[in-house]
Amino acid sequence: MGAWAFDEIQGTGPVGGSGTPGRVAAQARPAGPADRAPELQLPSGVLRHVRRGLSHWLEGVLEANAMARPAALPAQVPQGLDQALQAAGHDSSLQPALADALQQAHALQRMSAGAIPARTLVREGLGLLMRVADLESDWAAQQAWLDPLTGLPGRRALLQRLQAELSRLRRQGDHCCVVLLDLDQFKPVNDEFGHLVGDRYLAAFAGALSARLRSYDAAFRYGGDEFVLCLPQASEQEARGVIERLRLGIAEKPLVQAGGRDLFAAFSAGVAALDAHKSLGQTLGEADSRLYAAKRAGACRPVAV
Asked: What's this model's pTM, rounded to 2 decimal places?
């Protein structure tokens, strides 16, 4: 845990996989089926395939003579855009642009199946091609913000998301809570089983965390064994309920197996609500103080008061 200064969120702190001192020993239970760390697969090439398919189709339209009917837009173009849209998720800044591009692709597919002049298809196709190229560039930039170990967004993405939520809160007056999570048992995992197991443990925890969030919530890796949740439309009381549900769900089964033992996860949390009259640094500082209070109270507790 560290001081949540505003400049620290922008990336000046450590992002290593090692733990921090002072954690309780990892629980050991009788060995059972091993849980493998989730393999995080991001369809980073899907927009490239869309762009190539669209380019090949446009070449065919341009090469067709005036009497020939151009081939219909291949299904891989809207299918690929739909796949990218689903992968981006509701919290991605690319979601609206991907949805618009998908709608444009469906319209172009209908046009290409009818008696539409080739010049119209070329004009519309080039417009979609430019949009896909822009999306591909934006997607690559967004992926560069992901933590390579857990696949979760990192600090820069966290800052961007919280700024957007704070702006929305100031316009609409809605709720949004920030939760700082800190694993209670991580250092003993590293010490006893080594950093490779520790990395698997972190990746598995990130996967278990993400799988239990609402579709419009978001999880971020801050560094080490610290994570941050953004919970839109949640009051502090509702956020405590979310944390309790996460705590119970994640504790149900082991994250990984090592040395013939199942390793389970427990975490402490600090909750703070975004406030239109406070900076992000102040809000995160409050959540950090409450996380320390949870640790002092015996860990595995959400503190929001």
From this structure: 0.59
